[in-house]
Amino acid sequence: MARTTEQIDRQIANTDPELLPVGEHEKHGAKHFAGLYAAENVAGTEFVFGATFVILGAGIWDVLIGLLIGNALAVLTFWLITTPVAREVGLSVYTYLLRFGGGAISRIYNLANAIVFAVISAAMLTVSATAVQRVIGIPTQAEAYPTHLGFVILVVAFSIVAVLVAVFGFNALAEFATICGPWLATMFTVGGLVLLPAVAESVTGVTTIGSFGEFVDIAGATVFTGVTPEGEPGIGMIEVAGLAWAANSFAHAGMIDMALLRYARKGWHGLMTSTGMLFGHYVAWFSAGLMGAATAALTLTSITVLSPGDVSWVALGWAGYVTVVVAGWTTANANLYRAGLATQGVFPSMSRGRATLIVGVIVVVVACFPFVYRNYAPLVTWAGVLLAPVGGIVYAEHKLFPRFGLTEYWARFKGVTNVPAIIAWATAFGLGAVLNITQIISPYFAFVPAWIVASLLYVALARRAGAADDYTDEVRDNELFLERAQAFKRELATSLPGHVKDTSTLTRVLRGVWMLALAVILVDALVVFLASPDIYTYLTQRNTFYTIAITGTVVYFVAAYWELRRGKTLDRRAHEKARADAGSGGDGGEGGEKEPVGAAV
Amino acid sequence: MRPRPTSPARRRALPRPARRTGGLVGVLTLLVLAGCSGEEDTGPDTLTVAVVDNGDFDVLQELSTAFLDEHPGIEIEWVRESENELRETVSTDVGTGAGRFDVASVGTYEAQVWAGEELLTPLTDMPEGFDPDAFVPEVREALSADGAVQAAPFYGESSMTMYRTDLLEEAGVELPDEPTWDDVVSAATAVEEQTGTAGACIRGKAGWGENGAVLTSMAHSYGARWFDEDWRAQLDSEQWRSAAETYLALAALAPDGVAEAGYAENLALFQEGECAIWVDATSAAGFVTDPDASSVAEDVGFARAPGTDEGRPSNWLWSWALAIPASSDNPELAREFVTWATSSEYAALVAQDRGWAAVPPGSRVDLYDNPDYLEAAEPYAELTLEAIRSSDIAEPSTQPVPYVGMQYVDVPAFQSLGNAVGQQLTQAITGDLDLEEALERSQWVADQTIEQTRLLADQEDAAADSESTED
User: Which residues on B lie below 8 Å from A533 (Cβ)?
Assistant: First the structure.
């Protein structure tokens, strides 16, 4: 039975605006997504991925071109698969799944997410701890399990603090994380640059690299050699491309980034994800691999057991420790928070704080095992196989159903549990798991057939389960709901001030200062790279760079955080004024819990 | 010219599938690029040979037509660079396995260091006519590792003192047959004061194989050492200071431009009569006494390389030798070329074309049994062979050292370290640094650079301890 406009308006008024389709005023332009993805995709995980390509024995051309292909495929998937669905539906994958799939699949999906995010969080906490481990003299953990009590104590202490921060101070750290992107991108880039002369020297006896061809020869001989550390033939270009594509599979094919891309004003804004792929998954991975291999060569330690803390110290000095701690911890914090929310989604009666604490206990234990972060690439591949099929089901529900004469939201309209979606997901995951284990095809591509099977199987099963039935009244009701939701969002937009642009002199000065700090770090790294004709000049300039890097880092964070706080204060005052003017006590959402967004990988 | 942008109207006119197809075309382009990433191949009929740009290799290149006559259809691509440049070029090619060169001239240092890293093809499966026993034993041993010759000596050398007999006579000084560095400085000073001609020629050009070689052999003769047995740098020692002071004293007596003068430049200066005493490679002897090339050919005397009263003579051991990089695409042809270029037939060819004095010295034993050669090279032949044979590269200093080498240290790090220390001393010559600072910096960089070697030594010690415990 169709509802009246008043009934729908009441439902909308009682719904968290975040759970409603995105309003036009909330949408952003290309620049927003370019910045967002550039910042989101340079994280602690990049240290691990960089070393992974070296350990897997990728060749230099395999990496240079394979990463281009894999990242291009990732961008195309974001653009052609994720963005159209996200923009048209206007909801996050969690909300959309709940709406068309119902509570059962939503809970299973949340459980899967909780596991994935908890493991990512644990791996990143271990990464963070490796920096401090080196400072206090705990030996590198070469085994899959911890071999030093001090390491266990350190990781447990780190993890407990991280869990408590995620429970009680998430917003502060999340806010801090938003300013880390440009700095992390800079540090990853300069880390590789600064070590290049040392890499060249280790193989040619001279610190200079005369041409791109020479660079390729040197990197091919020392870093991306085409053989594994055990001397076995390494992975090829196809596998590199697959790994690059799979690394974000749960975000693009798995549709988790619907949460971000639903705000895209145009469809082509999905292409702006390429900034993240370029900085995070090309420059940062390559640079991290370079740093890892150079550190291994300089310290005569196998890269398979080197920790990110060891690597970053050699490349960046004290700033390297800060980089590992900040990159690891901000990534861990966000994922711990997401894991908590996902757990809460499984057990709705539980508070988020309690859910995060429970997940945190598991994270603390897992983080003690270096095995987890060293096997990050296979873990991400498994995450893709587990979560990507849900993206296939989402795609089928929204894009394929109309083509096959089926009705979107049919299960909700019919009032039944969406069993076809659960079966399709389970079958596709089973297929992906078999492919991953048997390696009939490269495991990095296992998410692709799993995604296709999930979508096609869901179409077939849904047709049999009633998706082809007539839901004219329900569809009309839904259309009215969407129309009223848009009207509500428009009204909300007029009652709240937009983002207040801070054009004050002090803010401009602060922005100039942090940009200058990054520029100085980058330029000095270029000086080390380009103007070190001999080892003495190189070593003295590298020592100077270490000082500049840590000084620049401090200056950057002071200025950037100050600017951020000023912006927040202005926004808060504008909201307070707007509320006072409207005489309303409605909360714009600051300080409240937001739904989870895609994991930064 | 900037590419003409597509107008917004045109972009809008493109149907959506066409724009998406553009993205897929981009990926396909990348895949095509991936298929095109192979390396350039010079083919099996081209031999690429990298050699030092000096007189002996000049002759080799010119006479290589004889090799080509024996191998029709073959081409040789020559890469000739000065010592410093060649070392960088060959190190990069061999170290990265780029495979550009089929034959490369390397020294005793590279033969030892690269053999340890399996970057060279051992000369074990050589064509008929290649006889390792034909080479001067000390030179052959310096080019061997793991029981196999790693590079065939094209010429071998030590160092000696070359001086202008006419100028020393005019200045009223004599140089003993076994001079000390003090003798050399005194004689050079006297010549400069009495005749106005620069008293000495000396390598001031920075580089481990340029001023680094002279400085290192000089320091060893003063009883100095680069590192102690635990690989701790020793460049702040009194012996190093004494050696460096002598080095700077000789540089002060050298012609203008000493800071840019390496072996080749000093050879030209001596041949042109621009300086009185030159302590350098024995391989220069043939060139400074060649009347066609040297204006002072009739007035050159020879003595042993200088030493000190407390230390040892500074005569080094070196060979420019022909090696086959492990990355060569054409090892069979390379073997044939190396065999030919180091054979007695080649020596006879040079003698026939240029005279016996032009034959590459110090490599083959039979050359020193050849009366024609001994006659042509009479002033220096015996002295050269004796200097080569008496160079004590295993114990270069009166103090114990953990390395081998009179004018170098046989560890991979030395190439960059020698360059860096050489650079500090060059700056001391030009006055940009005082000696104190130059040695301080040298000590610092030596300590930093040797860290990896030290770690390796520790690992080897630990492994040895572990083995002995198990036994």
Answer: 423
- The 10s digit of each residue's pLDDT in B58-100 is 999 999 999 999 999 999 999 999 887 888 889 888 888 888 9
B20 inside domain = no
pLDDT single digits (tens) B362-416: 999 999 999 999 999 999 999 999 999 999 999 999 999 999 999 999 988 898 8
In a domain, B7, yes or no: no
Please report whether residue B163 resides in a domain: yes
User: Is the Cβ–Cβ distance between A109 and A388 less than 8 Å?
Assistant: no
Contact B92 A68 (CB under 8 A): no
Per-residue model confidence (pLDDT) at position B25:
44
One domain, residues B144 and B59: yes
Query: Tell me, what's the pLDDT at B415?
Result: 87
Does B243 lie in the same domain as B256?
A: yes
Q: Which residues in chain A (224-253) have CB-CB distances under 8 A to chain B?
A: 237
Question: Which residue in B416, B455, B461 has the most chain A C-beta atoms within 10 A of its own C-beta, making it the best mutation to test that interface?
Answer: B416
CATH code (residue B438)? 3.40.190.10
Q: Provide the pLDDT confidence category of residue B471 given band limits of 50, 70 and 90.
A: low
B200 and B264 share one domain = yes
Residues of B in contact with A210 (CB under 8 A): 92
To the nearest whole Å, the CA of A205 is away from the closest chain B CA by 5
Residues B197 and B100 in one domain: no
Q: What share of chain A is helix, strand, coil (3-state, %, to 5)?
A: 75, 0, 25
Instruction: Look at A73 and B27 and tell me if their CB atoms are within 8 Å.
Output: yes
Identify all chain A residues contacting B420, using CB atoms and an 8 Å cutoff.
Answer: 534-537
Q: Tell me the β-bridge partners of B120.
A: B325
B266 and B198 part of one domain: yes
Helix A103-135 to helix A318-346 angle (10° resolution) is 160
Q: How far apart are CA B103 and CA B108, in angstroms?
A: 15
Q: Residue with structure tokens 């509802």?
A: A3
Asked if residue B10 belongs to a domain, the reply is: no
B-chain residues near A237 (CB < 8 A):
34
Percent of chain A with pLDDT over 70: 95
Q: How far is B91 from chain A (nearest CA, A)?
A: 5
Whether A203 sits inside 8 A of B30 (CB atoms) is no
Say if the Cβ atoms of A535 and B420 lie within 8 Å. yes
Domain containing residue B169 = 159-316+410-457
- Per-residue pLDDT band for A54 (boundaries 50, 70, 90) equals confident
pLDDT band of residue A497 (cuts 50, 70, 90) is low
* Structural domain count, chain B: 2
If asked whether residues B110 and B120 sit together in one domain, one would say yes
> Can you give the pLDDT at residue B262?
95
∠ CA A247-A253-A259, rounded to 5°: 95
Does an H or E element contain B372, and which? helix B371-376
CA distance B210 to chain A (A): 15
**Which of A225, A535, A538, A542 should one mutate to test binding to chain B, selecting the residue with the greatest count of B CBs within 10 A?**
A535
Q: Going along B416-468, which residue ranges are E strands?
A: none
Res. A590: pLDDT tops 50: no
Buried b (16+ CB within 10 A) or exposed e, A443-456: bbbbbbbbbbbbbe
Residues B199 and B346 in one domain: no
Q: Model confidence at B15, in pLDDT bands (50, 70, 90)?
A: very low
Assess whether B205 and B324 both reside in one domain.
no
Interface of A with B in 257-276 (CB under 8 A): 268
Structure confidence at residue A563 (pLDDT)? 92
Give this complex's ipTM. 0.73
Query: Is the pLDDT score of A116 beyond 80?
Result: yes
| A80 near B CB under 8 A | yes
Confidence category of residue B468, pLDDT binned at 50, 70, 90: low
pLDDT, position B6 = 34
Q: What is the C-alpha separation between B90 and B325, in angstroms, rounded?
A: 9
Q: What is the pLDDT of residue A582?
A: 64
Amino acid at A93: V
Contacts of A576 (CB under 8 A, 6+ apart): none
Question: Please, which residues have CB within 8 angstroms of residue A29's CB and are 6 or more apart in sequence?
Answer: A265, A269
Residues in A touching B455 (Cβ below 8 Å): 299-300
